[in-house]
Design goal:
Blueprint (H helix, E strand, L loop, with lengths): L5 E3 L8 E3 L5 E3 L8 E3 L2 H27 L5 H18 L1 H13 L3 H13 L1
Helix pairs in contact: 1-2, 2-3, 2-4
């Protein structure tokens, strides 16, 4: 999943390696030697907004999972949370409906999201 376009790393200036203070070359820890990092300002802001939305939805999902009769609750809850990301990427209209169902407190939405994840991963 690519959310932001790559830009040259500031630490290594796009080479993937940098010189330590001792003079020894080392691979860049910021870009992991790739020479590029994700991040112009607009796409980083979009990524942060998406992360904030998922952070807001996680406790709601966990509360509904406690009420829902799910076998293997932890695994199904993780799958349901991953399904939200799949929906956001593949089917934004269904993502909006799933969020509305979560906010309304429908306990079966956790199972439906979990099933969606296993069918579309």
């Amino acid at each position: 999943m690519t959310m932001v376009k790559p830009i040259p790393c500031r630490k290594c200036k796009g080479s993937g390696t940098f010189m330590r203070a001792s003079g020894m070359p080392d691979s860049c820890s910021w870009c992991v030697g790739a020479g590029v990092v994700e991040g112009d300002k607009a796409t980083n802001d979009a990524r942060k907004a998406r992360q904030a939305e998922f952070t807001r939805l996680y406790p709601i999902l966990m509360e509904l999972a406690k009420k829902a009769p799910i076998f293997g609750r932890t695994f199904s809850t993780s799958a349901a949370f991953d399904a939200l990301a799949l929906l956001a990427d593949k089917e934004p209209a269904r993502f909006i409906k799933a969020v509305a169902s979560l906010e309304a407190g429908h306990p079966r939405v956790v199972q439906a999201l979990s099933d969606y994840y296993f069918a579309n991963r």
